[in-house]
Each structure stands twice: as structure tokens, then as C-alpha cells.
Amino acid sequence: MISRRIRAWFSKVVRPLLATLARLGLTPNGASLLGLMLVVAAGAAASQGRFLFSGLLFSAGGLLDAIDGELARTTGRAGEQGAFFDSLCDHCGDFAMSLGLVWFYLPRGAFGEVVLVFVALFASMLGSHVRSRAAMLGIDLKDVGLATRFERMVVLATGLFLRHVRPALALLAIIGSVSTIQRIVAAGRSARIAREQPSTDARDPSHAHA
Predict the structure, then answer these.
(1) What is the dihedral of CA 53, 43, 90, 146, to 10 degrees?
(2) Interior CA angle at 45 toward 173 and 26, to 5°?
(3) With b meaning 16 or more CB within 10 Å and e meaning fewer, what string describes 138-164?
(4) 114 contacts: CB under 8 Å, gap ≥ 6
(5) Which of the 8 DSSP states describes residue 12?
(6) Of 173, 80, 56, 60, which is closest to residue 118 (Cα–Cα)?
(7) For residue 147, is it left (φ>0), alpha (ψ between -120 and 50) or beta?
């Protein structure tokens, strides 16, 4: 994943900005909410075919989505409640953007684009669901998959800026589906290893009681 290499660099670059935002009173939840509002506005712009403006709003919302976690760590407010709110805003933003694109394409009879929007959205939400369910079993899938939310947002933003949204949607559908399958496979493998471990330990003489 590209985002793995970017996280450490990004954290260092935005650290001065985060300190300034914290002094101005911006909270991590506030950043998440503001990012959601920008993405909703991007969806509204896309519904009118204003793809360049939509791309600008979407990128701004993505930037806020990227810094809310760093802001939480900087201000000492990192926790499960903030992560839950951030995830909720992410999903609502995904739906708003998808709705805007469907609103634009459906009256124009562009059913291929509509299908791609739904496939990309379904793959994204299913991948997130697989990750959260796996976490409940103690399986960490955070770094599993061809693409994270970061890569998906870059793909869509690029498609909006270049007004080549259909290729971007096709790529999103593909990488989202592949990432979801990779997470399902990884979760199944980890669960199988966990089930086999007790029986392996039982056969190992080193684990026998003295």
C-alpha cells in the first residue's frame, strides 16, 4: 500500500499545522464533521456535473479526513469513540459522493457508470465490515489489501479533476473488490491458524506438564 509509506512522512509534514489547528480550537471530531460536510458538498457538485469543483471539495474533505486521526494523537484525544465517529463520517461521505454521481448519471442513461458506482461502494463497505468483524475476533487487517481509503480517494479525486470519472469508477470497483477478497482470505487464514494452534501445542512434548 502506498499509504503505508506516506503515513510517517505525512505526520511530520502536518505536525506544525496540527498544532495551529489545536490552538484554534479545532477538535478531531470537528475535523471529521467538517470533512464530511465538504464531501457532501462534493457529491452535490458532482450531481450537477461540476466535476472539477467536486474534485476540489472532495480533496479538501479528504485532507481533513487524513488529519483528524493525527490531530487526535497530537491533542491526546485518541480513542475508540473518536475512531467510531470518524468511521461513521467516512461511510456517510462515501454514500453522499456515490449518490451525487448516480444522480448525475442515471437521467443520462449511463447505466454502466451507475453499476460501477454501486460496485465500488459495496466493495468499500464490505471491506470495512470484514475488517471490523475480524477485529472483534482479534484479527488485525488494517494493513491488508491492495488499497486503503487513501488510495481510493486519490483515484476518485484524480478522475474528477481530469473529468474521466468512468475509468476512475472502474478502477475503484476493481481495487475495492480485490482488497475485500484479500481481507476475507487473510481473516480466514488467521482464524484457521488460531484454531489449529491449541491442537499443535497439545502434541508438542515441550508443552507437557512436568
Answers:
(1) -70
(2) 90
(3) ebebeebbbbbbbbbbbbbbbbbbeee
(4) 102, 105, 106
(5) H
(6) 173
(7) beta
Question: The cell 474528477 sits on which residue?
Answer: 160
Separation CA 163–CA 181 (nearest Å)? 29
Least confident of 29-33, 51-55, 115-119, 165-169: 29-33
At residue 146, the pLDDT reads 84
Dig out the grid coordinates for 188 from the structure.
480466514
Query: Would you list the domain boundaries of the chain?
Result: 2-202
Q: Which set of grid coordinates corresponds to residue 161?
A: 479533476
CATH architecture of 2-202: Up-down Bundle (1.20)
Q: How many CA atoms lie within 13 A of 13 on its CB side?
A: 8
- Please say whether the beta carbons of 184 and 133 come within 8 A: no
- pLDDT of 154 strictly over 80: yes
Higher-scoring residue by pLDDT: 123, 15: 123
pTM: 0.83
Residue located via cell numbers 499443535: 200
